[in-house]
Amino acid sequence: MKIAAILPAALLPAALLISACGARGPLEPPPGEPLPVAPALAGRPLTSEELLTPPPVARPERVDELLTRSEEREDDRFELPPQ
Hints:
This protein has helices at residues 3-19, 48-52. By secondary structure, the chain is mainly alpha-helical. The model has no long low-confidence stretch (mean pLDDT 76). It is 27% helix and 0% strand. It is flat, with a radius of gyration of 26 Å. It has two helices and no strands.
């Protein structure tokens, strides 16, 4: 038998086992351990969901419309034809 024929058959069970090991429930700190210290200006400790939500600065909204109107481009002296 060729190895190329055996390899996909061996990888399929391994891929299924790896994909089945993900956590399904909400994240909680280990037993006896508190959540991380709250930020200095926070009025209360943050929940695990709040800690996992990135701030708006981390994921800015995408702007699809880069140009508000059509404009002629100036000549670019560094734009050279392909060689």
